[in-house]
Specification:
Radius of gyration: 12 Å
Strand content: 15-25%
Shape: globular
Largest sheet: 2 strands, parallel
Number of domains: 1
Strand order of the largest sheet: 1-2
Structural class: alpha+beta
Length: about 55
Amino acid sequence: MPEKVSNKINDENLVTCAVLSGNRNFEARVHQQVKANYLASPILVVAYAIAGL
């Protein structure tokens, strides 16, 4: 994660999330600052990535 993004998360006390297609959705799996994970089908993960959501 870029330092600028990491600093913004800390400064604003944000709860960040990830969208995963795998079955291991536990806190800090993607990054220690990513606190929420959502499971979705692979096509939805790609769609969210393209949409920038």
